[in-house]
């Protein structure tokens, strides 16, 4: 499968379409061999990911260098217990890239390590699912991926075939096993960061990125994915919005992973499910410190809900992108290099549930990028 990335760059009054290919399809199915092949093919990119996060962790720790070997060991232990095939894949990837396996475990556990180290909580991502009224038509699933500017070129779409014919396709960072994605059963997953009072309190648990990838690899419906995630022993929070399309119709739910969780939220009566960076499950809301200090997450969600309210019956991705491109609420977020806020929209991602494809556009939904 060939995935195409489209990067729109402004030139005077005209917009030009610059097509860039940044995708990879595995050719082997054994977990260790698959990781080894990926590691060899992308050794320089993976090393850069490790270098970026090593510096990010140091900065987060106030200038001291955390013991990444120990933190990586803790992450790997959790991965081995809950997702042994992915532990094998990470081990192979490290060997292929000629890096310590603890380095790769640490970048897979970057959310958990950032939570453990504490400090400023970053604002990331807005996700939309629209189920629509026609059960025979696939739902629309689109999100922005907001993250640090240093990772602007640090991601790809990875297609992973399995011997039994299943295929997982995931947008992820080099060295990280998964994030946003879809599989050949018509199950998709959107991903946003959340924050809970207990994040990091129990050290390094199961990486949320590993949880996302295992769901895409093993589950064929929203229901099976939701039940799988109930067993995920996480120590950091994220929302995993699950959506599926198949002969039985359409379904969606957001799993709000958190220590002691998860929480859950279902679509509204019109089939709309919008998630930004705050908890929606009323049982968990009192433990969410984020909206008090970062009300932008509330503004973004409100902007999307109001903008899409008239488009829920027959949704289309172009309309979602158009609403996301409105800058007033910060869904489409980009600042010039050197700004204090260096978390920007690195990609706009659409899931094609019918065909099992990920469509990723560099930069925000407005077409701009600032790197």
TrEMBL record:
InterPro entries: C45_proenzyme-like (IPR047794), Peptidase_C45 (IPR047801), Peptidase_C45_hydrolase (IPR005079)
Residue ranges of every copy of the Peptidase C45 hydrolase domain listed in the record: 140-363
Protein name: Peptidase C45
């Amino acid at each position: 499968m060939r995935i195409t990335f489209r990067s729109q760059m402004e030139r005077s009054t005209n917009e030009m379409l610059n097509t860039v290919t940044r995708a990879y399809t595995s050719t082997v199915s054994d977990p260790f061999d698959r990781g080894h092949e990926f590691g060899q093919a992308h050794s320089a990119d993976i090393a850069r990911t490790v270098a970026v996060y090593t510096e990010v962790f140091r900065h987060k720790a106030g200038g001291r260098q955390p013991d990444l070997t120990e933190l990586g060991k803790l992450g790997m232990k959790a991965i081995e217990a809950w997702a042994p095939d992915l532990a094998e894949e990470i081990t192979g990837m490290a060997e292929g890239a000629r890096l310590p396996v603890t380095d790769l475990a640490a970048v897979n556990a970057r959310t958990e390590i950032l939570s453990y180290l504490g400090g400023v909580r970053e604002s990331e991502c807005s996700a939309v699912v629209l189920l629509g009224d026609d059960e025979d038509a696939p739902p629309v699933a689109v999100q922005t991926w907001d993250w640090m500017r240093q990772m602007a070129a640090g991601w790809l779409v990875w297609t992973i075939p399995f011997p039994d014919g299943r295929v997982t396709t995931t947008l992820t960072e080099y060295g990280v096993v998964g994030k946003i994605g879809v599989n050949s059963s018509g199950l998709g997953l959107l991903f946003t960061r959340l924050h809970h009072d207990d994040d990091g309190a129990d050290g390094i648990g199961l990486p949320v990125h590993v949880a996302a990838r295992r769901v895409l690899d093993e589950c064929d419906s929203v229901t099976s994915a939701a039940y799988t995630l109930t067993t995920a022993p996480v120590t950091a929070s994220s929302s995993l919005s699950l959506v599926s399309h198949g002969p039985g119709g359409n379904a969606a739910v957001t799993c709000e992973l958190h220590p002691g969780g998860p929480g859950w939220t279902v679509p509204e009566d019109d089939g709309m499910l919008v998630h930004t960076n705050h908890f929606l499950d009323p049982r968990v809301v009192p433990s969410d410190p984020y909206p008090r200090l970062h009300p932008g997450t509330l503004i973004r969600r409100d902007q999307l809900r109001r903008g899409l309210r008239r488009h829920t019956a027959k949704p289309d991705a172009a309309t979602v992108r158009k609403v996301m491109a409105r800058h007033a609420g910060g869904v489409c977020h980009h600042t010039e290099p050197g700004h204090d806020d260096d978390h920007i929209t690195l990609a706009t991602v659409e899931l094609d549930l019918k065909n099992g494809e990920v469509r990723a556009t560099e930069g925000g939904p407005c077409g701009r990028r600032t790197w």
